[in-house]
Design brief:
- The longest helix has 20 residues, at 5-24.
- This protein is of the alpha+beta class.
- It has helices at 5-24, 31-49, 66-69, 75-93, 119-122, 137-152, 164-176, 199-207, 252-258, 298-301; strands spanning 58-64, 99-106, 109-115, 180-186, 192-197, 212-228, 232-236, 245-249, 265-276, 282-292.
- The radius of gyration is 29 Å and the shape is elongated.
- The chain has three domains: 1-52, no CATH class; 54-124 and 133-207; 212-301, OB fold (Dihydrolipoamide Acetyltransferase, E2P).
- 38% of the residues lie in helices and 28% in strands.
């Protein structure tokens, strides 16, 4: 059987690759750079024989820990890990990016994941798309790996806020099975990028969940649309369906003395208690009744 053009291309450049990296010597930066050069050399050689040749894009996730060292994957790990990983990539891309698991290999346990390829490309109908060396997933994957690297080095991640929930979910999954991970992204243009998440990075991501309390005061004026004996008064600020509504908490014993009724227009001075995490996302907001607003004190006394 004749040698395929892909094999011929690889052989044609094998010696050139060895010479190239030998000249770099100890100055060669890292494994990513090495793999990137190899992929780009291969693509250049392959297109010498076939102008439509292209690389595959793939994310490998190497899991490390007792649960992964045996080289087998508990289904629960895959279920817990892949969804937040997809959520993080989709958040980075600002659109839904479907990921599919294409393989599982050993060396700890390594997941091989790729963005789902559109059916018309999978069937060979590439046409004008044959020379595209990027995808919607590519910049999103690179951003996600940057976020992981920033978290691992305990840096400010607020610029990646939209992706943090996905990474937080990944950390929850890793924590559940006491795992760490290494990620490597190989893109269509030959670029290779890696990042890792150890116990240090996971601890930093967990710390982002810590809440800080912020207090302020404001006046809520509107019409009462709901009353509960437990001490909740819902106040709608306008007649439009889109008008803001506030759920104001009142001590139950005080609520009885206020003689409030549905449909009544009120003005409450309230304390606003906001709980925010370490990157400034609001986790909860409460409105606590302090006193009646100007001109309504008589309602309490009647």
């Amino acid at each position: 059987m004749s040698t395929s053009w892909r094999q011929r291309a690889l052989e044609r450049n094998r010696q050139a690759n060895r010479h190239f990296f030998a000249e770099l010597g100890d100055d060669h930066q890292d494994s990513d750079s090495y793999q990137e050069e190899l992929r780009r050399f291969w693509l250049e050689a392959a297109r010498h024989y076939d102008s439509t040749a292209s690389l595959d894009e793939e994310l490998t996730v190497r899991l490390k820990g007792d649960a992964a060292d045996k080289g087998a994957l508990d289904f629960r790990i895959g279920d817990a890990l892949l969804k937040p990983l997809r959520d993080g990539v989709s958040a980075a891309a600002r659109k839904d990016i479907e990921l599919e698991l294409t393989g599982l290999s050993q060396g700890s346990t390594v997941l091989h994941v790729r963005p789902k390829v559109p059916d018309f490309l999978e069937m060979g109908g590439q046409g004008e798309f044959s020379h595209i060396d990027t995808s919607a997933a590519d910049p999103a994957m690179r951003d996600l790996l940057k976020l992981v690297d920033e978290a691992e080095n305990e840096r400010d991640v607020r610029q990646w806020e939209r992706m943090v929930p996905g990474l937080d979910g990944v950390v929850e999954a890793l924590d559940k099975f006491d795992l760490s991970m290494e990620m490597r992204w190989r893109s269509l243009d030959g670029t290779v990028r890696s990042s890792s998440l150890s116990s240090r990075g996971k601890s930093y991501v967990r710390s982002l969940r810590d809440l800080e309390m912020h207090k302020s005061r404001t006046v809520v004026t509107g019409r009462i649309t709901e009353l509960r004996e437990s001490g909740l008064v819902k106040v709608k600020t306008g007649v439009s369906r889109r008008s803001a509504a506030y759920e104001v908490r009142v001590e139950p014993e005080n609520l009885i003395d206020m003689h409030l009724e549905l449909g009544m227009t009120v003005s409450f001075v309230v304390q606003v208690i906001k709980k925010k995490d370490k990157i400034g996302r609001e986790r909860s907001t409460e409105y606590l009744f302090l006193r009646m607003g100007e001109g309504q004190a008589s309602l309490v006394e009647e």
